[in-house]
Amino acid sequence: MEILTYILITFGLMLFVPPIRRGLISGPLVLLVAKLKLMPSISETEKIALRAGDIWIDGDFFSGTPNFKKILSEPYPQLTEEEDKFLNTTVDELCSMTIDFEVFSKRDLDKETWQYLKDKRFFGMIIPKEYGGLGFSALAHSAVVQKLASHSQVLAITAMVPNSLGPAELILHYGTDEQKKHYLPRLADGREIPCFALTEPLAGSDATSISSRGEVFLKDGEIFIRLNFNKRYITLGSIATVIGLAFTLSDEDELLGRGKDLGITCALVDSKLPGVVQGKRHDPLGVPFVNSPLSGVDVIIPLSNVIGGVDGVSKGWLMLMESLSVGRGISLPSTSTGGTKLATAVAGSYSTVREQFGLSISKFEGVEEVLARLAANTYMLDAARIFTLGAIDSGKKPAVINAIMKYHSTEIFRKAINDGMDIIGGAGISLGKKNLLGNAYMGAPIAITVEGANIMTRTLIIFGQGVIRCHPHAYNEITALEEEDVKAFDKAFFAHVVFTFKNMFKMVLYSLTRGYAYFTVSKGAASYYERKIAWASVTFAFLTDFIMAYYGGGLKQKEKITARFGDILSAMYLLSATLRRYKEDGNKDDDFVKYIGDEQLRIIQNAFNEIAANLFTGGIMKVLFKPFKWYMSVNSLSRDVSDKLSHKLALSISTNSELRGRLVEGIYHSNVYNKLQEAFKLHEKSIPTIHKIKAAIRAKKLPKTSVTSLIDEATKLGVITEDESSTLTLAQQLKEEVVQVDGFDDEQYLKREI
Ligand SMILES: Cc1cc2nc3c(=O)[nH]c(=O)nc-3n(C[C@H](O)[C@H](O)[C@H](O)COP(=O)(O)OP(=O)(O)OC[C@H]3O[C@@H](n4cnc5c(N)ncnc54)[C@H](O)[C@@H]3O)c2cc1C
After folding, report:
1. Active-site pick, 411, 451, 477, 530
2. DSSP class of residue 425?
3. Residue pair 141/125 in contact by the 8 Å Cβ criterion
4. 411, 448 Cβ separation under 8 angstroms
5. Partner of 752 at 20 to 30 A CA spacing, among 31, 159, 368, 439?
């Protein structure tokens, strides 16, 4: 007994008296890590990338404590009157000037459209009014891009790029007063066309490896930079008048007094300067927006052209990381939502007016399943878009959440456009003015590739950045270890140990009670999913600690594992955004919350199972771990697919309802789209008439043949009224018209004329 008391006291002193703990545990640990080089080195550029942006509700997911009181009261913004007016007049007018098929045929927007874009300040949406821009909120900026993308991806990309990462954004945040005064008004009204040049033939995803160089030199008592660069894939590159250029700066003579290697720097380069080579074009999958290589040989710029002037030297990477992290939450989520809503709206109405085997194809279960997926993805994506924009508009820069948005919005769009294309069949494949989806389909892989190609975003950024940026203790531990600061390490490490034990206890509790030990604040259908997110989050937080301890510095290379953690984090975010929308829309869209909730929980459970399946795959640990794996799969977070639910969701977009209107709100209604809607509405109106004729057939009043061929006879016999007859006739005519596709004679086809 005495011995036990001594042992407990010794352990107590070691654990709870910091100076003793530091001497006996933390100090030796820091030394061991340094000696065995267990600590992966984190470069300065990696540190900047890791620190970029703010932590938002992602931090709570990493802590295992999502706070739904906070989540459900986060802003869910709305457009101002002025923004709404712009969206519904100026943007509509711009869309009405553009026929996307013509843009593809002529391989450019026409002159009037370019001029309109400039005159109406589309290139200056993010530029404040005081500099002549529109000064729009992130929500309005997104709404404009969304609407443009629902009509023409070319139009959307052209308007979007000057407002995303590029000269305007960088000057706004980091530029000198002179740069702001000179460039912002000229960028706002389109006198200057900007581009941003970072990517190179040998530096794509790894942008830190750029080889474009700038050398500082002195001439006539003034400091200049000589640039040599070779860039590719630059949007608006061949027509840009001002290039935002990223390069590595060196100062061999140390004229700036900051050493020889000054690191990545961004400057503004006038495209007319001697040595700049523009003019060639890339052809991004035939989608005719301007994208080109850009190079420069011995191009001379004054030092004052560095963004931020002399203070901006060496800060290029920081500027890029901070700005890119915000752009990821706006540009591509907006184009993707526009495209997804279009696919949903078109597939929903087309599948109703298109009849095969005597029925609207939307009635077939196979089609219904795809329609349900489209409807759910649209609901969830729009929820996440607005939720994220609310955070951005309130001043946050949620880097990890924005990476989730970039990855998932573009992946959802890719799925949605494929689903839409499958449903409309040949009408999606045959290009021409009547085709509403074909050109958008071409744009999907572009969105996947840009602003951080998706595979890397999933595997490296979402969880890789998140685990260090958002984890409450990891970053402090790493910096303490790097600096061999025993006191700081001790503090962070033991706080981490307590955190892990707390989460372990909570995880077991939630798991045994299937989440019922957690008290929800959501109402209606959302309550069930809030509970499951809380359970998923604490499991995620505990496993994150486990995986960090298990792989240590090697975790970075375990991309298949980090990708699955990224999927769990993303699913928790997308589902939380859905619950926020559910509340905003009056707690009434139960079917959507259930379908999306079940789907996201299946994704989470599947990821947990796959993580577990790939831990301890050999030896005694494999045997010991087996019961845990079994328990995890039996005590699943998720439940089975419901065919009844998917039936209801399919109905929500294949019938003309208030919900359908809400789902696809914000897209442009072109003439071709309007005709499809007219046919769709008339079809709905004529359904009771069709039922009357069918009843008459069953009663043997009318012969057993197609309903269309019986309209006259049914009218004569009084089965249907004259009004009903004309509505049904018109509906049939329109339905036949809207399923037609374009045809071209040889000459037109070969010349690509319309
Ligand atoms: C149409 C278009 C417009 C563009 N506009 C601009 C622009 O205006 N300005 C500009 O500077 N750039 C622009 N880009 C460049 C774009 O941002 C890059 O394409 C992107 O960074 C990817 O580079 P890459 O195509 O060379 O692919 P690579 O870097 O060669 O990557 C190929 C694949 O490998 C994956 N991968 C790479 N590294 C990893 C890793 N560590 N882990 C897992 N997977 C990895 C990627 O995810 C990708 O799937 C544009 C590109 C395109 C296609």
Report:
1. 451
2. T
3. yes
4. yes
5. 159
Residue whose Cα lies nearest atom 26 of ligand 1: it is 204
451 is catalytic: yes
CB 570 within 8 A of CB 58: no
Closest C-alpha among 664, 648, 537 to residue 593: 648
Q: Is 42's pLDDT higher than 80?
A: no
Dihedral angle computed from the Cα positions of residues 164, 167, 172 and 177, in that order, rounded to the nearest 10 degrees? -170
Q: Are 403 and 328 in contact (CB under 8 A)?
A: yes
Question: Which positions ≥6 away from 113 have C-beta within 8 Å?
Answer: 94, 97, 98, 155
> Which atom of ligand 1 has the smallest separation from the CA of 452?
21
* Nearest ligand 1 atom to alpha carbon 195: 8
- What does the pLDDT look like over 110-134, one tens digit per residue? 999 999 999 999 999 999 999 999 9
State in Å: Cα 269 to ligand 1 middle.
23
Range 149-163 average pLDDT? 96
SS3 content of the chain, % helix, strand, coil (to 5): 65, 10, 25
User: Which tens digits make up the pLDDT trace of 336-352?
Assistant: 999 999 999 999 999 99
Rounded mean pLDDT of 415-431?
98
Q: How many Å lie between the centroid of ligand 1 and the Cα of residue 612? A: 31
Judge whether 195 and 161 are in contact, CB under 8 Å.
yes
Q: Coil, helix or strand for 235? A: strand
Nearest of 619, 389, 533, 383 to residue 67 by alpha carbon? 533
Bridge-based pairing state of the strands 213-219 and 261-270 = unpaired
Ligand 1 centroid distance, CA of 267 (Å): 22
CA 78–ligand 1 middle distance (angstroms): 34
pLDDT tens-place string over residues 598-629: 999 999 999 999 999 998 888 888 888 888 88
Exposure on the CB side of residue 470, measured as CA atoms within 13 A = 30
Q: Within 13 Å of residue 336, how many CA atoms lie on the same side as its CB?
A: 34
Q: How far is CA 710 from CA 352, 398, 684, in A?
A: 21, 61, 19
CA distances from 201 to 154, 204, 233, 247 (A): 24, 7, 9, 14
CATH architecture, range 81-169+186-191 = Orthogonal Bundle (1.10)
CA distances from 245 to 223, 529, 570 (A): 18, 46, 33
Summarised one tens digit per residue, pLDDT across range 562-606 is 999 999 999 999 999 999 999 999 999 999 999 999 999 999 999
Q: Is the pLDDT of residue 463 over 60?
A: yes
Cβ 333 vs Cβ 385: under 8 Å: yes
Q: Which helix (H) or strand (E) holds 596?
A: helix 590-613
Smallest Cα–Cα separation from 307: which of 318, 291, 298, 294? 318
For 96, the token pair is 């009405």
The CATH architecture annotation of domain 195-327 reads Beta Barrel (2.40)
* Lining residues, ligand 1, CB within 6 Å: 195-199, 204-205, 233-235, 284, 291, 446, 449-451, 453, 455-456, 459-460, 559
Give the whole-angstrom CA distance, residue 545 versus residue 600: 23
Q: Are 269 and 276 in contact (CB under 8 A)?
A: yes
CA dihedral 222, 223, 229, 233 (to 10 degrees): -90
The set of residues, in sequence order, having a beta carbon less than 8 Å from that of 439 and lying 6+ positions away, is 100, 101, 104, 152, 153, 287, 431
Q: What is the pLDDT of residues 678-705, one digit of tens each?
A: 999 999 999 999 999 999 999 999 999 9
Q: Taking the domains of the chain in order of start, what are their residue ranges? A: 81-169+186-191, 195-327, 671-738
pLDDT value at residue 40: 67
Spatial contact of 666 and 341, defined as CB atoms under 8 Å apart: yes
User: How many CB atoms are located within 10 Å of the residue 172 CB?
Assistant: 19
